[in-house]
Design brief:
The protein is mainly α. It has twelve helices and no strands. It folds into two domains: about 80 residues, Orthogonal Bundle (Endonuclease Iii, domain 2), CATH 1.10.1670; about 110 residues, Orthogonal Bundle (Endonuclease III, domain 1). The protein is about 60% helix and about 0% strand. The model has no long low-confidence stretch (mean pLDDT about 95). It binds a DNA duplex through helix 2, helix 3, helix 6, helix 9 and helix 10.
Amino acid sequence: MKNKAKILKEIYERLLNHFGPQNWWPAQSPFEICIGAILTQNTNWKNVEKALKNLNKHSLLDPFKLYSLELKDLSQLIKPSGFYNLKAKRLKNFIKFLIEEYNGNLETMFSEKLEVLRNKLLSIKGLGKETVDSILLYAGNFPLFVVDTYTYRILSRHQLVPEEVSYDEIQALFMENLPAEVKLYQEYHALLVACGKSFCKNQKPNCSQCPLTFLFMDL
DNA sequence: TGCCAGGCCGGGT
DNA sequence: ACCCGGCATGGC
């Protein structure tokens, strides 16, 4: 593939033109972003909203409140987001880390050097690359491109990456061919999700309406 | 109505 | 090093 930078820019402009600015992440605070990032693992965002609403209703969107909450109580509150027993543990793992390492202060956590922090977060059980990168990009404002299934699917469908491409390779593709701008990365990922939800579904893609259709013919 | 959603882990080859 | 099952609710 040649002129990757031009292709990635073209995709971005088409998506932005079609969907408009997404202004992600949908949350009221950096901490809520972290919680949402874990809850949305392989899960419809609508279900995550219900779980977040439950936590918010009980004023529990706070590291110390969640830290002292019983695991079984937490799992019941986040039930609508699915995988609730698993995710309750994962939330606890993250919160324990945040409190023990940074006294529950996200600003302190984000004052760490990016690579150091990313590796620490990745060592928490239940936090993988997408979750960690989402936290770093949207809550921490680090210039790190987030890759998810929609990103892969859209690139793959348009033959921009091979089938067996890895997370790191896709991330590098974006980061090596776009300026390292936080706002751009935030918006671009959000637009890919918007496109994925609308057109690039797993079994029933609606390619005729997709703004990326005929990408190559126009380049 | 059945398929799938903004993943990740662990155990088996 | 892969590959695959498990985790689970609610939307469309």
